[in-house]
Amino acid sequence: MMENEVFASFTFYSTILIIKMYILAIITGQVRLRKKAFANPEDALRNGGLQYCREDPDVERCRRQVLAHRNDMENIFPFLFLGATYSLLDPNPIVARIHFLIFCVGRIVHTVAYLLRLKAPTRSVAYSVAQLPCFSMALQILFAVITHWSR
């Protein structure tokens, strides 16, 4: 598996992105526990009582993490499919690595912009830049499939 340089590169950047998603989820949970401010009654009951089913300014800030996490799922999951399929096309390893790197950096910048509320258009630019390699991979996959079908 790791003899395929393109797939190894894809695996590296995908793993970085998955770890980033885990970190967001852990931070959100830790803030809720530390502030004893739970979103639903069953968690509050398990952690001291219904009085802890409440809102807290720090937890509300954390909700941005939830939005960033949801946005990650909407973008990283398609990247995982596109990148894995693209890796099967035997692309140029340097070009493939650039595709994966641009997407990874774009998603990290997008998350930082989301959480730190950086001025517009930082988040939009990061999102758009990260979509470019996905669009490129999708077109190359479609072209390869259409070419294969027309033989």
Please describe what this structure looks like:
The two termini are 29 Å apart. It contains 5 helices and no strands. Helices cover 79% and strands 0% of the residues.
Keywords:
151 residues; mainly alpha; 5 helices; elongated
Write a brief structural summary.
The chain has helices at 5-35, 41-46, 57-87, 93-116, 122-149. By secondary structure, it is mainly alpha-helical. α3 (57-87) runs antiparallel to α4, α3 (57-87) runs parallel beside α5 (122-149) and α4 packs antiparallel against α5.
Low-confidence stretches: none
The helical percent reads: over 70%
H and E order: HHHHH
Strand content: under 5%
Protein structure class: mainly alpha
According to DSSP, the number of beta strands is 0
Instruction: State Rg.
Output: 19 Å
State the helix count. Answer: 5
Largest sheet: none
